[in-house]
């Protein structure tokens, strides 16, 4: 009896080890960041499409807050939520100024796992870094100088965007002037407390989005105590028609001149939608592996596994960059943490198929 139990236990352990190794084999190693860190703006062919003449100026606003409340936890603006729109606007003929509530060099959050060629090129861009180191005081920015404003995300925005009189004035003046207003992730906090001349909230009756309660509380369970408010709650309280999408996937809302994105994975789409709102067709840009992965996951969320598998097949036959299997695996892990084992198994199946496509 003892030998049979020992044999059964040994088989179980070997099976688990084998499964673990198989799953580990589905996830590729991280990008070579030492190579990526050498990227320069001149290496981005995308920027070569910039029109010869400037189409005007766009103001990007970042937070000056470097600590999350009294927690002692560091925060700031999210680099990828500035670098990518900065280059989208630049490639499409706009000059970009950078402002912040306190002026000077703002605190930054850099998530190495999210960094790509555009983000490293931005870090190596002398002009962009000069603008950051000397960011304009928001109170010194005039709406008359800009065709649009873009509020960059980052948890720090929850503290110094909502009640800043200069930000409220800037937003109100741009809105009254028919200019374009964009924001992503926590950036829409800048819009939360803006009141128009008629006494109504700017966002009242407007379709908007931003970092959702679901996304916030999953990452930071004590967010209600840490932040002045939850962004989704505040926007709803101010009368906004809040449009949440699936967690950690692309979702943008467009209501006239107001364009908002739910999270970092919405950044490219918001920036290019702003270019369209300004009356131009965005110059062509190859989708990144992360963007392809987000589209794959959106297909899964909206249409199920079978159609997601077809989407994966389409991506594989396009002959361009493959999906980001590390990002796909992350969503599988999130599904496990949420107790959604069925979704996790489906994502594992997509991972296995993605690897097979890449090795053919």
Structural topology:
Layout: H1 2-26, H2 33-36, E1 57-61, E2 77-78, H3 79-91, E3 95-100, E4 108-109, H4 117-123, H5 126-133, E5 136-137, E6 148-151, H6 157-160, H7 165-176, E7 180-184, E8 207-208, H8 213-219, H9 223-226, H10 231-237, E9 241-242, E10 252-255, E11 258-261, H11 267-277, H12 289-303, H13 305-317, H14 325-337, H15 341-358
Parallel strand pairs: 1-3, 1-6, 2-4, 3-5, 6-7, 7-11, 8-9
Antiparallel strand pairs: 10-11
Helix pairs in contact: 3-4, 3-11, 12-13, 13-15, 14-15
Q: Could you walk me through the main structural features you see in this protein, from its secondary elements to its overall organization?
A:
The chain is α/β, with parallel strands linked by helices and 360 residues long. The protein folds into 2 domains: 35-277, Rossmann fold (3-Layer(aba) Sandwich); 287-360, no CATH class. Helices cover 45% and strands 11% of the residues. It has 15 helices and 11 strands. It has helices at 2-26, 33-36, 79-91, 117-123, 126-133, 157-160, 165-176, 213-219, 223-226, 231-237, 267-277, 289-303, 305-317, 325-337, 341-358, and strands at residues 57-61, 77-78, 95-100, 108-109, 136-137, 148-151, 180-184, 207-208, 241-242, 252-255, 258-261. The strands form 3 sheets. A 7-stranded mixed sheet has the order 5-3-1-6-7-11-10, sandwiched between helices. The protein has a two-stranded parallel ribbon with strand order 2-4. A two-stranded parallel ribbon has the order 8-9. A hairpin with a 2-residue loop joins strand 10 (252-255) and strand 11. Helix 3 runs parallel beside helix 11 (267-277). The longest helix is centred in the N-terminal third of the chain and has 25 residues, at 2-26. The radius of gyration is 22 Å and the shape is globular. Mean pLDDT is 93; it is low at 1-19.
């Amino acid at each position: 009896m003892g030998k049979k139990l020992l044999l059964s236990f040994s088989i179980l352990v070997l099976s688990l080890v084998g499964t673990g190794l198989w799953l580990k084999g589905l996830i590729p190693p991280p990008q070579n960041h030492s190579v990526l860190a050498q990227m320069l703006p001149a290496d981005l062919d995308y920027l070569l499409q910039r029109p010869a003449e400037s189409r005007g100026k766009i103001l990007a606003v970042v937070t000056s807050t470097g600590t999350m409340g009294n927690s002692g936890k560091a925060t700031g603006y999210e680099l990828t939520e500035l670098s990518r729109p900065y280059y989208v606007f630049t490639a499409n003929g706009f000059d970009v100024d950078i402002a912040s509530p306190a002026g000077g060099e703002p605190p930054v959050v850099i998530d190495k796992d999210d960094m790509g060629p555009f983000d490293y090129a931005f870090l190596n861009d002398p002009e962009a870094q000069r603008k950051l180191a000397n960011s304009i005081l928001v109170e010194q920015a005039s709406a008359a100088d800009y065709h649009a404003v873009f509020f960059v995300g980052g948890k720090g925005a929850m503290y110094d965007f909502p009640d800043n009189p200069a930000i409220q004035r800037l937003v109100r003046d741009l809105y009254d002037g028919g200019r374009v207003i964009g924001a992503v992730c926590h950036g829409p906090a800048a819009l939360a407390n803006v009141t128009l001349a008629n006494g109504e909230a700017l966002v009242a009756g407007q379709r908007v989005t931003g970092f959702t309660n679901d996304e916030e509380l999953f990452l930071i369970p004590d967010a209600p105590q840490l932040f002045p408010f939850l962004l989704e709650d505040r926007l709803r309280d101010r009368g906004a028609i809040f449009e949440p999408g699936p967690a950690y996937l692309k979702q943008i809302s467009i209501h006239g001149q107001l364009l908002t994105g739910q999270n970092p994975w919405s950044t490219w789409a918001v920036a290019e939608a702003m270019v369209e709102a300004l009356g131009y067709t965005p110059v062509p840009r190859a989708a990144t592996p992360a963007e392809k992965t987000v589209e794959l996951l959106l297909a899964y969320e909206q249409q199920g596994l079978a159609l997601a598998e077809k989407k994966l097949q389409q991506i594989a036959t396009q002959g361009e960059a493959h999906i980001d299997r590390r990002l796909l695996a992350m969503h599988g892990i999130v599904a496990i943490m949420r107790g959604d084992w069925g979704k996790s198994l489906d994502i594992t199946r997509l991972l296995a198929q993605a690897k097979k496509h890449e090795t053919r």
